[in-house]
């Protein structure tokens, strides 16, 4: 019996990792008006941001259906494999609920659905940890149980460069966006309890990078786990942030993620950040 790991494309892991890591990545869908695209398959990140720049309203994203999960689960369940499903946070999508509905169609199979409370490179981080656990010989039950505890220590901090997309999404008034742009205001966002939250505002990207570094230092990093950096169509900015943090914080930097349509729809281009496992609090 093997342990199978299923996640979704909101993790922003390249689909090539399905073969590299032996996992399944189910794609969400993106709609620009009447046109629908399968995330990562017929719409690359570069194509998405090119379309987003021209869009008069934000695209819509569609969750993975129970039927799509059933199709992915069936061959593994029939083979007697155990399955761990790591979907986008339930606070951001109904995808986790779809996974649970699909699980009920296989009452004799060993299937665990973990509400990761994560998305984009924070979710990618948990997927890689699950893979490491699998490859070290842990059972599906042990992996799911460990991730349920570990997910509370996932931290993701990012700075948003362009306020246009927050305004288009109704998260910022038009007047606020204009004034913020004039003043060079950059929101600092985090994933908290599975939701994207604005936690600070600074003036300028340099100050944004420093604010992220300060929070990383305050939380502490458990370097026994991987850390991820991510960006939305600005790899040079991501490397600048990494160049600031890496010399000052001990991290096991594993991968870099290009933020795709699911998060990029609201963050827009120019967003950069870091995800890691926070150090355990001293007792």
Nutshell version of this structure?
The protein is an alpha/beta fold and 283 residues long. The chain is 40% helix and 25% strand.
User: What is the mean predicted local confidence, pLDDT?
Assistant: 89
Q: Low-confidence stretches at least 5 residues in length (pLDDT < 50)?
A: 170-183
Q: What's the count of strands?
A: 13
How many helices in DSSP terms? 11
Walkthrough of the structure:
By secondary structure, this protein is an alpha/beta fold. Helices cover 40% and strands 25% of the residues. The protein is built from eleven helices and 13 strands. The strands form three sheets. A six-stranded mixed sheet has the order 10-9-8-13-11-12, with helices on both faces. It has a four-stranded parallel sheet with strand order 2-1-6-7, with helices on both faces. β9 and β10 form a beta hairpin. The longest helix has 16 residues. It is globular and about 55 Å long. The termini are far apart.
Set out the fold topology.
Layout: E1 3-8, H1 17-21, E2 24-26, E3 29-32, E4 35-38, H2 45-54, E5 60-62, H3 66-78, E6 82-86, H4 95-103, E7 111-113, H5 120-135, H6 140-150, E8 154-159, H7 164-168, H8 174-183, E9 185-192, E10 195-203, H9 205-219, E11 226-231, H10 235-245, E12 252-258, H11 261-267, E13 272-277
Helix pairs in contact: 3-4, 5-6
């Amino acid at each position: 019996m093997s342990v199978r790991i299923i996640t979704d494309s909101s993790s922003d892991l390249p689909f090539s990792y399905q073969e590299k890591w032996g996992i399944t990545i189910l794609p969400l869908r993106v709609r620009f008006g009447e046109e629908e695209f399968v995330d990562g398959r017929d719409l690359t990140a570069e194509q998405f941001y090119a379309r987003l720049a021209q869009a008069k309203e934000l695209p819509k994203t569609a969750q993975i259906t129970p039927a799509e999960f059933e199709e992915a689960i069936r061959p593994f369940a029939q083979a007697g494999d155990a399955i761990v499903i790591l979907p986008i946070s339930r606070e951001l999508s109904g995808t986790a609920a779809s996974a649970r509905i699909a699980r009920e169609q296989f009452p004799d199979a060993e299937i665990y659905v973990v509400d990761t409370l994560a998305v984009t490179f924070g979710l990618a981080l948990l997927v890689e940890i699950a893979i490491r656990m699998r490859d070290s010989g842990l059972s599906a039950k042990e992996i799911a149980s460990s991730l349920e505890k570990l997910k509370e220590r996932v931290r993701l901090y990012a700075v948003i460069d362009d306020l246009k997309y927050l305004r288009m999404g109704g998260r910022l008034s038009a007047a606020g966006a204009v004034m913020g742009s004039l003043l060079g205001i950059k929101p600092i966002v985090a994933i908290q309890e599975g939701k994207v939250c604005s936690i600070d505002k600074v003036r300028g990207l340099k100050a944004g990078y420093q604010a992220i570094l300060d929070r990383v230092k305050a939380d502490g990093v458990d370097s026994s786990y991987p850390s991820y950096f991510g960006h939305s169509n600005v790899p040079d900015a991501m490397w600048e942030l990494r160049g600031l943090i890496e010399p000052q914080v001990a991290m096991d930097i594993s991968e870099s993620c290009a933020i795709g349509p699911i998060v990029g729809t609201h963050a827009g281009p120019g967003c950069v950040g870091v995800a890691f496992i926070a150090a355990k609090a001293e007792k």
